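Contributing new complexes? Match this layout with adenosine-5-diphosphoribose.
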Amino acid sequence: MREITGAVIESSGMPVTIEALQLDDPGPGEVLIRMASAGVCHSDLHVRDGDWVRQGPVVMGHEGAGVVEAVGVGVDGDLVGRAVALNWLAPCLRCRECQRGRQWLCQDSPAYRHAGLDGTPRVSRPDGSPVLSYLSIGTMSTAQVVPATAAVPMPDGVPPEVAALIGCGVSTGVGAVVKTAEVRPGDTVAVIGLGGVGLSCVMGAVLAGARRIVGVDVSRAKLDLAASLGATHSVHADPDRPDATVEAIRAATGGGPDFAFEAIGSPATISQAVASLPPGGTAVLVGLTKFGQRASFEAFPFVDGGRRIIGSNYGSAVAAIDFPRYAEAYLAGRLPIDRLIDRRLRLDELEDAFDRLRAGAAARQVIVF
Ligand code: APR
Ligand code: ZN
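Output block (do not edit by hand):
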C-alpha cells in the first residue's frame, strides 16, 4: 500500500478533483508503474463532459508512460526498472479475437472493468472507499497498478512524453493509416480534424508514402502544424459550408482521396469524409462520437461507385509489436511524435487543459510528473 495523488471525477460530467489516494501492491499478473507522463486526449474529455457515461469515482487518463517499480506474482522480475508505454486495452490473450491476433478487438479486456485483473479496484480513498482506474491504467496519477499486458517496454532513448503518446493518439492515428487502411505509396489521403489523432494520421500518411496528404481543420494553426509534418495541401473548413469543404478536398486530390480519415467523431464530418470519396475510395472512421449518434450518406453513388467505410479502433494496434515499432521510427527520425506536444502541464492544471481542448486550441498537452 502506498500514497498517490490522482485526478478523479466522481461521475461523468463532473469536474476533476486532485486527491490523495491509496494504491494497493500489484496482485498476480500486475505491475506497479511510477507514472512519468500522461497525455490529455479527447476521449478523456468525452468522459469529463458526460458525452460517454461512465461509472465513478474514477482516476482519469488512458494515455501514459512510466517506469515499472514492482511486479506481482507470475510477472518477470526483469521488468523492474524498465521504461514502459501503457496500452489502454490490455489484451486478455484468451478470447477469440486475441487468439486470432486482433487484440484491438479483445472482448474480455480488464480495461472494460476499469479495475485490476480480478475486476476489483486497486485504488481507494483515505476512508477506504474504492476508486476505479480508467481503462485499468488511470494514467493521471503519480503511480498505478496495471495488468502486466498493459505495460509495453520501450527502447532506450524514448522520452516519456513520446512514449505516452504512443500509448493512444499516435497508435490510433498512425495505425489507422498503416495498419487498418494499409495506405500504399502513391495513394492520396485526406485527414479531417487535426488534433493529436489527426496529426498522427498525417504522420502515418507520410510514413506510408502517400502522394497527396490534405489536412482539413477549422483552425489555421492546426493546418500549419499539419503542413510542417508533411501535409501537402490544406483545407480551411467552415462548419456552416460543409459542401464547400467536400469540394475543396476533391479539388486538392484531383477528384477525391483514395482514403478519407475522419479524426473528430462528429456526424457532419463523417458525412463529409464519405461525400469526398471518388469511386473505389475508402472512408476510415477514427474519431469516436458521443454515444447514440448516427451519420448518413447518399446510398446510390456509394454502392454504384464501390466505395467503402471502415471503422478503426486503436489503429488496429497489437501493442507489444506496434508500440516498439513506432518508438523505433521516432528514434530514426521518421515519426516526429514530439512535434505534437504543444504544452507541458502539472496534474492540477488538468481542468485548464480540458478548456483548451474543448476550444480546439490544443494539439497534444501532456502532464509531466
Ligand atoms: N471541421 C474540421 N475540423 C474540425 C471540426 C470541423 N467541423 N470540428 C472540430 N475540428 C477540429 C478541431 O479544430 C481539432 O483540431 O478537430 C480537431 C479535434 O482534435 P482534438 O479535440 O484534439 O481530438 P483528438 O484527441 O485528436 O481526438 C479525436 O479521436 O479517439 C477519438 O475520442 C477521440 O473523438 C476523438 C477523436
Ligand atoms: Zn485516447
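Reviewers usually confirm one structural detail per submission. For this one: The pocket of adenosine-5-diphosphoribose (ligand 1) is lined by residues 41-43, 46, 169, 172, 192-198, 216-219, 222, 237, 239, 263-265, 269, 286-288, 357, 360 (CB under 6 Å).
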